[in-house]
Amino acid sequence: RLPTIAASFVGGSQQHVRRRKRDIGRSSEDSFLLSLQMGKHGQVAQGGRVADLSQGDFALYSATETYDLRLPDGFSQMVVQMPREALLQRVPNADSLTATRISGETEVGRLVNETVARMIRLADGGDRLKLCQSGRSLIEP
Q1: Is pLDDT at 139 greater than 80 in this prediction?
Q2: What are phi and psi of 91, to 5 degrees?
């Protein structure tokens, strides 16, 4: 955990995660989440959009709106949680970008992969960066 950003490695067996309106009502989380797919694939759905993620891809989603995550057996991903207002100050249209796949092969995708890897190294004190065969930087769980 950094001052305003939290990052978690998530992995495991097949899952379908659904954040419902009643879940949102019981929570005080006012944040965005960014899922960086590290192994296998995953799916993020929100606001009528669906992002199918492969290794190195990422998608943003809001904790203040309903969402669905579908993850296969053996998946792994890095989830970065950031304050909603802080992101909206930098990306005013963030709500319209949720559940949109950003390829790890794009310039923005590479930048996010590298930034998350650096953030983890700073918070962790270790070197968890590894390069996958395509040359994209990913964080090693």
Answers
A1: no
A2: -130, 85
Measured in residues, the chain has a length of: 141
3-state SS class at 32? strand
CB neighbours (10 Å) of residue 22?
9
pLDDT of 122 reads 72
Instruction: State the average pLDDT for the chain.
Output: 85
Tell me the two tokens of residue 7: 């990052």
| Structure token digits, residue 65 | 């709106």
Q: What is the pLDDT of residue 129?
A: 43
Residue type, position 102, single letter: I
Name the token pair of 76.
């792994």
Distances (CA, A) of 49 to 32, 52, 70: 16, 10, 14
- Whole-prediction pTM: 0.81
Give how far Cα 76 sits from Cα of 12, 39, 94, 95, Å: 7, 5, 24, 25
CB atoms within 10 A of CB 100: 16
